[in-house]
Write the structure tokens for this entry.
Amino acid sequence: MKIRQFCAAMLPFAATAIAAAPACADMTIKFANLRPDANTLAAYVSFGGGGTFTATDIKTNAALAKGVSYPVSSLTKGISIHEFSSGRIYVSLGAKLVTPVAGNGFSPNFDNPNLKDFATRWDKVEITFVPGSGGANLSAQDFFGIPLKIVSKGGGQTATTLTWRSDTAPIMSALAKLAGSAVITKTNATGAIAKGGQGVTVPGISGKVVRIVSPASVAPKNAAGATVYPSFAAYVKYLRTGNPSNPGQPVKTSIVGNNGAIGQGGPLQTYNLVATVANSAGTIGGASVMTGDLVLTGSVNSGAGNVATTILVAAANLSDHAIYGANPSYSIVKGANTNAIAEKTLADYFAALNFGFPGSAVNNPDENGTAIGASPSWTWYGNRPNGVNRKPLPIKDAFAFAQPAKKTYYNGYAAYLTGVSDAYGFAYNDRLQSPLAPLGDGSVLTLSVLPDTQ
């Protein structure tokens, strides 16, 4: 099928006088395979995600479709994107991806050894573009498989480059060690290391490694019942019992800030909650709790005054898997989930667990004289309750900076990636650092497949 794109500037004056044509609002994506074996090892791209995808091959003017793998070598002039909302660009080496289905956004398989594509080496770029604005980012929050680089230019946006800055083998080696060298097999589907034919050699692992699955995406426990990545159990216990001014009692963490306006031009929503991991059975903020339950209690103001609010996360949902994924199950005991305030405040706290902020005794660089852990969360994230936001703490002030003596008191996977890439290490990386390539009408985004040896 051929699609002809018309812009007002292309039409004669008489035509524009009769009916106004739409303004040009497309952006361009170009592709480059920079691997030394590009002539012998084919690279493919396919498109997915949950939103609208309207695009054409610039060379042929043919419409492109989700779930179809196209050789990078065939897209010599790039593609024209009219809209690509909540999108994903999948890149594979040596083979086309074959498992994507519409129901999951055409996402290929990366962690199930019993399905196709498991041994295929692939990775992805996240992208959203609607006429006028958008952005793209590298993401390793599910796994790392292929070093990619994206460069955005034009469209009235700041030129931006996002990339990987180290050879692939040492990156995979470091992540494999962090994951206890747990290989995924058909007899033991838990683990973090996937192997296949186009992978790289990693010391201590037999065969070629095609990806390292992140702690947010591995099964909560391996076949032996052990955690694959380092456990947060000691950190959670400390938060339950390590109050420095009241030994044996919980650490109190202030989750305070604004959640933006409610609707177009609506009132500013603010929240002032205290997060506590219960040290005994009882009642907190009107919620009946058991030992180990997490409670956020205080007030939320959605424009009509403070409303008492209590959010409960059962101890079973304060697991390693839930913390790494920063997306726990919860219940609202008091108040209402206006403007998704429960998800916002829980994301503030669970992101902080990954960064190592709760209970941190290190001086807060933006609140000199107050420890990071004793500071309200808006001093970390910059979302002041008065709505006058400021820059968040830089990513260098998280992880080992916040918890210098406790390597298991933060997300080591995400911490390591900040030093070798511009990729997201976990879902709420952007609470502090949002490595985004901005896009506008007329922007050109170049997506390059990088060599494994830089």
